Structure formats: structure tokens, C-alpha cells
UniProtKB/TrEMBL annotation:
Keyword Membrane applies: yes
Protein name: Phosphate transport system permease protein
Family (UniProt): Belongs to the binding-protein-dependent transport system permease family. CysTW subfamily.
Record region (Disordered): 1-25
Cellular component per GO, a single term: plasma membrane
Function field: Part of the binding-protein-dependent transport system for phosphate; probably responsible for the translocation of the substrate across the membrane.
Record key words, sorted: Cell membrane, Membrane, Phosphate transport, Transmembrane, Transmembrane helix, Transport
Principal subcellular localization: membrane
Amino acid sequence: MRKGSTVLPSTERTRSRRAPQRPGDRVFSGLSTGAGVLILVVLAGVAAFLVAEAWPALIAPADEVPGPDGIVLYIWPLLFGTLLAAFLALLIAAPLAVAIALFITHYAPRRIAQALGYIIDLLAAIPSIIYGLWGIQVLAPLTVEPAGWLEENLGFIPLFAGPASTTGRTMLVAALVLAVMILPIVSAVVREAFRQTPRLHEEASLALGATRWEMIRMAVLPFGRSSIIGASMLGLGRALGETMAVAIVLSVSGGVTFNLISSGNPGTIAANIALEFPESTGIAVNTLIASGLVLFAVTLLVNMAARAVINRRREFSGAN
């Protein structure tokens, strides 16, 4: 070192060695930043629109709002039906999606795994109205006889209290249709998480004498736990906003009930908006928008929770 020379800190030496930023880098950085800001602006604009349009219904007297008991009791059964259908769909789809992801990544031969992965991903490309038609024409008639059996043998459980529907247009069928719709979303995320499991973790488990299932239980599932939770919540957000499939399948009578096999079912917010909006005017439109605001808030909270769970996942490597 020469006398009188200045020793730069390591961070400053690193910065001094960096190449100058190219014009293309600056353009790409600006476009990326603008895209992120644009998303926030659009989201804020949607929220502002919903609040502004829902405000007349929120402050209107109860006798002016559709329904006999005011806006809260008008939205509550719809919110209950939305949450019930979505959580039932998640309860069905999440374990099946994890099982499919495990089979594709750790059990199936390569060719079968690729073909099955394509088929599962293809489910996401089918329009929701096709799912609704499949549910009402195929799935609903197939559930009539099992629903009668559930009423006879498990009728003491509120979920199967009956009377069983003779058409199959029940909350159970709606939940099954939603489960098939969110299956590719959950399966795709979980499958990628399982593929990123450090190879050294798997080999170490097998080298210690673990069976394949024990290796999956001790290495793969712990690594992908947060991804499973995040994927499930993303699927839940998808199920909460589904419209046409539920509107086609579900026979709505209003009210709040846990009965899954009867014709008397609570509606969902999205399906109710789709069915009622074309013929609504005045304060009825504001009421439907107010219910949409509730759905917007619930979906936003679900997706924010999913992002928070994913961000908390620690990064694993083969060395730790």
C-alpha cells in the first residue's frame, strides 16, 4: 500500500467496480417500476369505485334496501354461502392436489408425470361455464342417490340433515365443481415447491435408511409446508370469486344453513350479482355493489394472507 493512499470501505470498492448502468437497464427498471405502480393505482381505483357506488346503499334506510331487514342481513347470507362453498371446495381440493403433486414429482415415471402434469394444468384453461354445465348435467344427477343415503344414515349430522334434493342442485355439488376448478392452481404451485426440495436432503434421508414415504414426510413435506398453505389460500381466493359455475349449479332459497344436500341453499355474492344485476335499478344496484365491496375485501385479505405465508418461507439449500 502506498503512503498516503486512502483505503475505501468494501462496499464503496464494490460500487466503484460496478459497470455503469446501460440505457436498456434504465428503461427496463423504469417499466418494471411503472407496472408495479400501475397495479397499485388500478387496485386503489377499483376500491374507490366500489366504496363510492356502495355508499348510498350503506347509508340508506333499511326499508329502501332490497330485502326486509336492511343491507347487513341482505349480504350476510350471501357472504356465508360464499365462504361455505369456498372452504368446502378447498377442503376437497387441497389434499387431492398435494397427493397429485407428490405422485408427479416422486412416484410416477417421467413420461406419465409429464402427461399427467399437462392434463392437470389443462383444467385451468376450461371456461367456468363449462364446469357449470358439467356440474348440472353430469355431477348433480350422480349425487341424488348418495345424498339420499347420507340423509338416511347420517341425517343426525347438520351437514346431511336433508331433505335430500331430487335434482342434485345442492351446496355439495357446487363445492365439488369449485374443487375441480381450483385443483390445477393448488397442484401447480405445490408441484413446483416439491421439485425445489434440495436433493441432498432427500439423499440424506434415504442414506439413513428411510423409505420413500419417510423421506417425503421428513424432507419434502416440511420444505413445502408454507407453499402448500400459500397455494391453498390462492385457490381459496379463486373459489371465493367464482360466478357462472355456482350460478348454474346452485339452487338458491336464501337463509343461512349448513345443510349440504337439500334444495334450500344460501347463495354466493358473485353469483347473486350476476343473476340480479341486469334487472336492478337505483338503490338495488348500489346494494349489489356493496356486496361486491365485501367480496373484494374478503378476497384481498385472503390473497394478502397467502402472500404473507409465502414470504415467511425460509430459503433452503443443500448445505443447511
